[in-house]
Every structure is written in structure tokens, then in C-alpha cells.
Structure to design on (308 residues):
């Protein structure tokens, strides 16, 4: 071997010192029994992740606290709503009892008595709905949801139950008009006591009630299909909007049929000096509103047809 490749004494001493230093360093880095050595970078990342998780946990805890306050506020609001509507129903019941006595004594007509009874039934339905909202808020901790695609809450379909209440409220008005008011008005028209336009108005509003009930039944059907997994949320939304637009169109057309003849009659009375121009203007505004409602419903229907 050439002499230039032979290590000299200084090099050997230096190498021996370096090796001894390395062995001592490794001895210090050896893990204690039961512990695992990890690189510093991994330890740093683990520590950072720990702080991050602590931050997430703290945020979640804060959200839970906020949600708890939201829940308390929502429940308190609905409890107050139930108390108010309970008191209102009691007032309606007393009023209904008084009008019933007046009817028996012949002081008021049957229509007036039935109208008061109908408002009492409506107040009872409103109280039932408020109680339903309160039950949902207590279970979910959130404000009641009325979207057709809202999930079940505690295994209950609160959306469907509210729709059933709404349908019953429409039935109350429909039954009152169809079974009581319409027959009575027909008799009075035949006797010449009231004009036929009064009967036509009631028949027109009866068709509006029927349109409202039909729309609710459609929404109930869509709700059941969604919960059964037969349609998606987007399909449900489109069909529900279409149903609502068609209902608005039917109602607007019925209102136009009701208001137009009455407006012509009022204009004739204005020409005769029987009614002031302000009454005619008010009727014209009602007609314009119904026409605008019909136009908007038609536009919505056309748009929804393109995205089906």
C-alpha cells in the first residue's frame, strides 16, 4: 500500500475520539424502558396536532354552549306562544258560548253564530300547531322546520303533522261556507233579500278553499314520497314549487272571477252617485293585485317546466 494511504498517528487519535463521542451520544439518545424514541419533527407535529385538537374541542364546546342558549331561547319563545294561544282559545270559547246563547234567544243569525264557532275551532288548531312546534324544539334544540325535505325529528314527521293541521283549518272554513252559509244565502237570494252577487262571492271563496286544500294534499303526498326515498330533495323542491305556483294561479283566477263582476257593479253605482270613487279605486287595486298574482304564477310555472 502506498505510504500516502497509511493513516498517521494523529489521524488515528482523531478517529478514535470521534467514534467515542458518537457512542456516547447514542447512549444518551437511547429510549428509557417502556418508551419509544421518535424523531423531533414527529414529536413537534404531534404536539401541534394536540394543540389543534384542543382548539377544535374548545370551539365545539363553545358551540354547544351557544346551541344550549339558542335552545333555551327557542323553547322559551314557543312556551310563551303556547301560553298566549291557550289564553286566546279560552277567550274564544267564552265568546262562542255567549253567541250561542244569543242565537238561541234569536238575537243573532245562525251564520253569525257559526262564524264565531269557526273562529274558535281555528284558535284550537293554532294552539295545536304551537304545541307541536314546542315539542319539536325540545327534541331538536332548534327552531321548527317546515321544508318538505326536512328530516324526521326523534322519529316523528312534524312537517307532515303541521300540514294536517293546516288542512283541517282550511276544512273548517270550507265546511262553514259550503254547509251553512251557501244554503242560507241561496234561500235569501230566492226571497230577494240579498243580491245574487253575495252568493257568487261566497262560492268563489269556496273554490279558493278547495284550491288550498288540494295544494296541501299534494305537499303531503310529496312529503311521504320523499321520506320513502322515492324522490330526491331537488326533485321534491321543484315539484313543491310547481304545486304552489299552480295553487296561486287557481286562487288568483278565482279572485279575478269574484272581483270583476263586483267592480263593474261598483262602477255603475259610482255613475249613479251611490258610492264614492274611493270605493271603486279600492276594488281596482284588489283586481290589479289578483292579476299580478296570476301573472307571477304563470311565469313561475313556465320556468319550472324548463328545469324539470
Amino acid at each position: 500500500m502506498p505510504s500516502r494511504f497509511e493513516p498517521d498517528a494523529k489521524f488515528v487519535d482523531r478517529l478514535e475520539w470521534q467514534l467515542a463521542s458518537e457512542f456516547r451520544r447514542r447512549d444518551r439518545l437511547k429510549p428509557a424502558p417502556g418508551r419509544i424514541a421518535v424523531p423531533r419533527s414527529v414529536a413537534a407535529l404531534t404536539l401541534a396536532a394536540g394543540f389543534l385538537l384542543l382548539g377544535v374541542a374548545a370551539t365545539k364546546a363553545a358551540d354547544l354552549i351557544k346551541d344550549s342558549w339558542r335552545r333555551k331561547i327557542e323553547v322559551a319563545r314557543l312556551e310563551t306562544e303556547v301560553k298566549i294561544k291557550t289564553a286566546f282559545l279560552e277567550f274564544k270559547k267564552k265568546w262562542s258560548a255567549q253567541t250561542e246563547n244569543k242565537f238561541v234567544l234569536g238575537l243573532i243569525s245562525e251564520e253569525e253564530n257559526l262564524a264565531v264557532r269557526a273562529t274558535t275551532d281555528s284558535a284550537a288548531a293554532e294552539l295545536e300547531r304551537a304545541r307541536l312546534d314546542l315539542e319539536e324544539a325540545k327534541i331538536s334544540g332548534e327552531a321548527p322546520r317546515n321544508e318538505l325535505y326536512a328530516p324526521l325529528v326523534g322519529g316523528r314527521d312534524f312537517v307532515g303533522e303541521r300540514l294536517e293541521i293546516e288542512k283541517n283549518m282550511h276544512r273548517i272554513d270550507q265546511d262553514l261556507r259550503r254547509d251553512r252559509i251557501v244554503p242560507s244565502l241561496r234561500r235569501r237570494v230566492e226571497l230577494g233579500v240579498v243580491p245574487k252577487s253575495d252568493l257568487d262571492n261566497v262560492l268563489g271563496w269556496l273554490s279558493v278553499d278547495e284550491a288550498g286544500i288540494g295544494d296541501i294534499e299534494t305537499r303531503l303526498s310529496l312529503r311521504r314520497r320523499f321520506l320513502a326515498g322515492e324522490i330526491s330533495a331537488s326533485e321534491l323542491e321543484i315539484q313543491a314549487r310547481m304545486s304552489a305556483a299552480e295553487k296561486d294561479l287557481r286562487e288568483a283566477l278565482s279572485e279575478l272571477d269574484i272581483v270583476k263582476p263586483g267592480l263593474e257593479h261598483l262602477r255603475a253605482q259610482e255613475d249613479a252617485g251611490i258610492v264614492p270613487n274611493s270605493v271603486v279605486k279600492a276594488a281596482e287595486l284588489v283586481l290589479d293585485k289578483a292579476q299580478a298574482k296570476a301573472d307571477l304564477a304563470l311565469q313561475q310555472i313556465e320556468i319550472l317546466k324548463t328545469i324539470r
Q: What stands out?
A: The two ends are 91 Å apart (CA to CA).
